[in-house]
Amino acid sequence: MSRPKKLSLYIDGKAAKAISGKSFTNFNPATGAKLSEVEQAGRRDVEKTVVAARAGFREWSAMTGKERGRILRKAASLLRERRMELAEIEVRDTGKPIAEAPEADIDSGADAFEFFGGLAADIKGGHHDLGETAFAYTRREPLGICAGIGAWNYPLQIACWKTAPALAAGNSMIFKPSELTPTNAVRLAEILTEAGLPKGVFNVLQGGAETGHYIASHPEIDKISFTGSVPTGRQVLADAASSVKHVTMELGGKSPLIVFDDSQIHNAVSAAMNANFYTQGEICSNGTRVYVHEDIHDAFIAILKSRTEAMVVGDPMDPDTHVGSLISADHFEKVMEYVRLGIEEGAYLVSGGEKVTVKGCEKGNFISPAIFTACQDDMRICREEIFGPVMSVMSFRDEEEVINRANDTEFGLAAGVFTQNLSRAHRVVAKLRAGTCWINNYNLTPVGVPFGGYKQSGIGRENAAVALDHFTQLKSVYVELGDVDCSY
Ligand code: NAD
Description:
Elements: E1 5-7, E2 9-11, E3 14-16, E4 22-27, E5 34-40, H1 43-61, H2 65-81, H3 83-94, H4 101-119, E6 127-129, E7 134-142, E8 145-149, H5 155-168, E9 172-176, H6 183-194, E10 202-204, H7 209-216, E11 223-227, H8 230-241, E12 246-250, E13 256-259, H9 265-277, E14 289-293, H10 297-309, H11 329-345, E15 348-351, E16 355-358, E17 361-367, E18 370-373, H12 380-383, E19 390-396, H13 399-407, E20 414-418, H14 422-431, E21 436-439, E22 458-459, H15 466-469, E23 472-480
Parallel strand pairs: 1-5, 8-9, 8-11, 9-10, 11-12, 13-14, 13-20, 14-19, 18-19, 20-21
Antiparallel strand pairs: 2-3, 4-5, 6-7, 7-23, 12-22, 15-18, 16-17
Helix pairs in contact: 2-4, 2-6, 3-4, 4-5, 9-10
């Protein structure tokens, strides 16, 4: 057996050993194999990185948007060139199927660098006419040092979605990936250096909650962009409050998918499957509460069941696999506990929800996609984020009722509506309290469209030009052309 590799921090344009002297092990969740021994950043490593990021910021923010954009677009093409190599790293770190990772992870990350690289030369303020003798203008200026803290489900994509707009706007970035998926953030750092990024502008710190806490509470970091669960998000917000930082919060969800009786049923089933089983259900915006009109409920379930049972749970590296391994044994236990709870609460397990042993991946955390029917709104499986392949189906009778039930949650990340009735589609979407809504599809996140949550699912938006607003601050400049009025 080969010795696991070392994975470093990345500070000031190069790999760096942790001053803390600590490290942790990164495992492949599908096989249990040790992937690497990872340096863990302590408080002094954070201090050192802030110094590097401050110097990086001075150089980077003095460059023109055109110059910055060229480097970011070069990084996008390097990401595309190394697409398969990076996708395989992502599969080994996360357990997700290789059938998904090249497009959903690597292309999506490259899209962000291409998109924000293109916008970098067009970051601008406004002009305010104040009559003949004065005017004002606004400048969009970078914030300074931004920090990103990521979740483990889309490690490279999350790093890119945060870093591309932050860097386009002239900030420097300190990124901490999840301790469960540490590898591709370092690969991204190497790619950015190769693309010509000055040293200190993009830095990677490895570690878990403790390292995250040092970052979120550091007084010289100007912004935290966090992706993770609501409970951790609350702690990060509290830490950020100590120095009144700017924040973007991309948190969890329990999103509704509403299927009206005039829906194209095969499309609605496809969307429900994408919305629950893609990436083994480990997606924040998943439509895990599926409301199906009572007139088509039984037909919907019959099609859903037969198509779900044809899905292949298997080795994530096999291109024919649809459902890979959950991220860890702990997470597997949590998801299985919800399956047991659903049965106890009186929901009917139509399909799946069982441990699957995969040949060659006997130590993996595989579960067959689970479908519950006869669910009630107040069941815990319908209220709490499970973050695994567990779908809860409920039936409904009328529009107003289903809107109220869909909105009855502390979350508000996403929602979907299936109907052929255009007026109803837009009427219902307008009443749903969720940041991203899909009509007749689910879980598409093109880079040009804002993404983010209502209620406890988040603050701020990622993607689209609006993300630049969240990585800049506005300076208003009043300009006098006439005399100064003074009564003294
Ligand atoms: P998590 O909250 O456990 O961890 C997220 C990150 O926070 C990790 O990097 C972790 O090391 C770090 N962290 C933990 N404690 C911290 C602390 N006290 N201070 C600072 N950092 C700390 O989430 P997870 O299990 O990695 O990811 C799953 C969650 O992420 C789900 O709730 C999912 O919905 C959410 N998510 C949201 C989006 C979105 O865009 N809205 C995208 C992906 C995942």
